[in-house]
Amino acid sequence: MASTNRQIVLAARPEGLPKESDFRPIETPAPSLGEGQFLVKIQYLSVDPYMRGRMSEAKSYAPSVALGEVMVGGAVGTIVESRHPEYRQGEVVVGYFGWQEYALSDGRGTQRFDTSVAPISTALSVLGMTGMTAYFGLLEIGQPKEGETVFVSGAAGAVGSLVGQIAKLKGCRAVGSAGSAEKVAYLKNELGFDAAFNYKEADDYVAKLDEVCPQGIDVYFDNVGGPLTDAVFRRINDHARIVVCGQIEQYNATRPPRGPRVLWHLIVKQARAEGFLIFSYTHRFPEGQKQMAQWLKEGKIKYHETIVDGLENAPKAFIGLFHGENLGKQLVRVA
Ligand code: NAP
Ligand code: FER
Fold first, then answer.
1. How far apart are the first and last CA of the chain?
2. Residues 6+ positions from 194 with CB-CB distance below 8 Å
3. What is the DSSP letter of 33?
4. How far apart are CA 130 and CA 162, in angstroms?
5. Which atom of ligand 2 is nearest to the CA of 129?
6. Distance in angstroms (rounded) separating the CA atoms of residues 70 and 26
7. How far is the CA of 90 from the centre of ligand 1 (A)?
8. pLDDT in tens, 284-322
9. Considering just the CA atoms, what is the radius of gyration of the chain in Å?
10. Contact between residue 328 and residue 305 where contact means Cβ atoms under 8 Å apart
11. Ligand 1 within 6 A of CB of 22
12. 288 lines ligand 1 (CB under 6 A)
């Protein structure tokens, strides 16, 4: 391997939207392998909205990244050296290896990836954490039934694009919102959504929802939050399920959001809103990955990856998530 390791560290805690100067590239001596460890050469990094939370000091389920520390994140790569009894050189592994070229691991929190199933990038997209979020979030929390209407916000993103397709496979009407005409066309023409709209162009969300969801909404898979979500509450059906997956509209907010009080709608519709963290489903990933891999093989699920080249471009790719620059899953190719 090379004698140095390139890494991206957290340089400053962002105020509002993260900036490239909140990150800093550094070079450190290549890590040396201890007994019981292996060295991974990273091929792809995942950039995800949750990382905004790790950059801040606000209380969370996971500790924040310290200033000067390597940015956290899921990655996939190949073992180039091993002194671990159960991992061999040449194996492809997925783990939270961070924004760097090489990572040491003792195997904890690491899974092998079977490259005969799908390209290795899918370990971070359709067969990875984001794919599992769509799968378990929709099926376990959303409980979609045949004939129901599933509405998903952030529909052209990594999670949302899979949610709509899984809803279709379950016999539902799939409807989504996304931030451009191209994304809306992609949802309708490529992914088989029954309807979709550009939330940046709609000024009356309730009227828009009436148009695209004439039977009301039975399952709302919320990736976004904010005014669109406020409107959805006004159009949920009796016994609706609201899957609170993400609230990206608020991740860069500098003061607590205030909005219409919507819980009244849960009472009158006897509906349920439930948040979840995909990390609670880690033990069930093999089951979800098996089903997603089967659907991929049968051509029933499509996925798109937006790939940026170069570790040095990871900050830009991450920031792009908040500007909707990605279609499907945003990845960074490191090697
Ligand atoms: P993604 O949807 O691929 O990327 C983020 C997308 O959000 C962007 O492409 C952009 O698309 C949209 N967006 C950004 N700012 C927005 C705003 N102010 N208003 C509306 N839309 C905005 O990301 P992902 O990885 O699939 O994650 C989707 C959501 O799921 C996120 O909220 C994330 O935090 C959440 N998530 C939760 C869990 C969990 O365990 N609960 C796990 C994974 C992900 P447009 O062009 O449409 O604006
Ligand atoms: C995400 C958004 C938020 C996510 C996790 C969280 C795994 C958790 C945030 C917190 O505990 O503060 O997309 O994905």
1. 12
2. 173, 174, 175, 188
3. P
4. 9
5. 7
6. 9
7. 34
8. 999 999 999 999 999 999 999 999 999 999 999 999 999
9. 20
10. yes
11. no
12. no
- Judge contact between 149 and 173, C-beta under 8 A: yes
Residue 66 near residue 10 (C-beta atoms within 8 A): yes
Task: State the ligand closest to the CA atom of 132.
Answer: 1
Residue ranges per domain, the chain? Answer: 4-125+303-333, 129-279
pTM, 2 dp? 0.98
- E-strand stretches of the chain: 4-10, 23-29, 38-46, 75-82, 92-95, 102-105, 111-112, 149-152, 173-178, 195-198, 217-222, 236-244, 272-275, 305-309, 329-333
Contact in structure between 178 and 184 (CB atoms under 8 Å): yes
What separation in Å is there between the alpha carbon of 61 and the centre of ligand 1?
19
- Report how far ligand 2's centroid is from the alpha carbon of 277 (Å): 7
Residues with CB under 6 A from ligand 2: 48-50, 53, 60-61, 246, 277-278
120 CA to middle of ligand 2, Å? Answer: 24
Q: pLDDT (tens digit, 9 = 90+) per residue, 156-203? A: 999 999 999 999 999 999 999 999 999 999 999 999 999 999 999 999
CATH assignment of 129-279? 3.40.50.720
What one-character-per-residue DSSP string does 205-219 give?
HHHHHHHH-TT-EEE
Superfamily assignment of 4-125+303-333 in CATH?
A: Medium-chain alcohol dehydrogenases, catalytic domain (3.90.180.10)
Match 């990875």 to its residue by tokens: 128
Burial class (CB in 10 A: 0-12, 13-18, 19+), 255: exposed
What residues have CB less than 8 Å from 286, skipping those under 6 apart? none
Q: Which protein residue has the closest C-alpha to ligand 1 atom 15? A: 322
Distance of CA 2 from the midpoint of ligand 2 (Å): 34
